[in-house]
Design a protein that fits this description.
This protein is mainly alpha-helical. It is built from 6 helices and 2 strands. Strands 1-2 form a two-stranded antiparallel ribbon. Helix 1 crosses helix 2 and helix 1 crosses helix 3. The longest helix is centred in the middle third of the chain and has 16 residues.
Length: 184
């Protein structure tokens, strides 16, 4: 859709320049499509991955619960792969949790650089010698309690605790390998 506003007078609008736009497309041009940023997931995909990782549902069932229809084979396989990638039980997450435990024991801070801003001008300070932007480096020491909690979450997902309920309500004679009345 194009709009024609008529001729533009350069004396009325000196900052406006008019350039002709070609409406022809070549085989090499690809139409622009709005997409999500790479790595972001939709709300329904996040919910389906949550069902797969927390409740151990198959990918097909999780997709059907969230979207209300049967997935194709490729869609189910893609969803299962995304669930594996975002799972806390994957080896990369265990390795990072292991590194966090070492950092806790070493007392290592997280380093966060931020630009140094001049209060008078509102612009970033430049080093007078090199004319490079200057940064302030903050050392943030997160609480060890929070870091240990994250390590425990990852460890519990990687090696879940198996709990068994054993019914100990019963007669003692049912559990003994010999007969009590014969001891007599």
């Amino acid at each position: 859709m194009t709009f024609d506003f008529g001729p533009i007078d350069q004396q009325e609008c000196p900052s406006v320049t008019v350039e002709p736009v070609s409406t022809q497309t070549t085989q090499q041009s690809v139409p622009f499509v709005l997409r999500k940023p790479k790595g972001s997931l939709s709300r329904t995909t996040k919910t389906a991955i949550n069902y797969i990782n927390q409740y151990n549902l198959p990918a097909r069932d999780a997709y059907q619960l969230v979207n209300g229809r049967q997935p194709s084979n490729q869609t189910a396989a893609d969803l299962a792969q995304k669930a594996r990638d975002f799972s806390l039980a994957q080896p990369a997450m265990r390795k990072m949790a292991h590194q966090v435990a070492f950092d806790i024991l070493k007392g290592k801070p997280m380093i966060q650089p931020r630009p140094m801003i001049d209060k008078r001008t509102g612009l970033q300070h430049l080093d007078p010698e090199t004319n490079e932007p200057m940064e302030i480096i903050d050392k943030v020491y997160p609480t060890h309690t929070n870091q240990v909690a994250v390590v425990n979450i990852v460890a519990d997902r990687a090696e879940p605790v198996v709990r068994q309920n054993v019914n100990l309500n019963g007669n003692l004679k049912d559990f003994l390998p010999f007969r009590i009345d014969e001891l007599g």
